Amino acid sequence: MAAEITANTATVVRAIMAREVKLNHVESVLRELSYPISREDAAERFDDVTLVLAEGEKNLGEHVSQMSDAEFESADDLENEVFNNLPRRAVGEPYQSEGEG
Hints:
The chain has 101 residues and is α+β, with helices and mostly antiparallel strands. It has a domain at 37-93. Helix content is 44%, strand content 17%. The chain is built from five helices and five strands, in the order αβαβαββαβα. Strands 1-3-4 form a three-stranded mixed sheet. Strands 2-5 form a two-stranded antiparallel sheet.
């Protein structure tokens, strides 16, 4: 019973602390970590972050956990991997910026 309450409390805390970040602002979130950092540690730290993409959303922790690199040397290194492992449509239509419409 106590373990169930603890698990439920952890879920509630994560839901309260969950945050959404637009893809073009992901760098600020990545800079919160100390580097180098393992893929597993980075994924755990970002399990409460939802990336808002041009088409849909993606959990950043889950996204990082699926990357092939075992470790990231810097925020720039991790940012490159975040973008390189997204589908093309996640960043919007080719040759268009957010300001066009």
